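Fill in residues.
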């Protein structure tokens, strides 16, 4: 940690990582982005304006039936959880930089867009 100044790196890059995730807010299923450093969550909603969330069956399908597998198959290891509102939790390696942030963004954009398309059907 000290030799490679990992804490300093995270402090320097957390804004860029956050902005990468904030750029996904144009996808209707993305209700909120929250977190600090390299630990963030994307809240998933049925209706962004009202913050209406998914019921238990919808959440089960969305998180376990679709998102977990689709994200993994596209190369993104993260956690889909619904102990409160459904969220995708992200914690990339502390050495991550712009290239990895762009990869995360691209996978999330494709998979979350597909998830929304399936939700509205």
């Amino acid at each position: 940690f000290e030799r490679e100044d990992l804490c300093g790196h995270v402090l320097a890059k957390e804004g860029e990582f956050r902005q990468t995730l904030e750029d996904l807010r144009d996808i209707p299923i993305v209700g909120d982005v929250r977190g600090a450093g390299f630990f963030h969550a994307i809240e998933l909603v049925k209706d962004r304006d009202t913050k209406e969330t998914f019921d238990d069956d919808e959440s089960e399908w969305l998180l376990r039936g679709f998102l977990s597998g689709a994200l993994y198959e596209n190369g993104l290891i993260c956690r889909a959880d619904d102990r409160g509102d459904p969220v995708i939790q992200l914690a990339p390696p502390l050495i991550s930089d712009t290239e990895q942030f762009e990869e995360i963004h691209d996978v999330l954009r494709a998979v979350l867009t597909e998830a929304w398309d399936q939700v509205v059907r």
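Strands lie at 30-36, 39-44, 79-81, 87-90.
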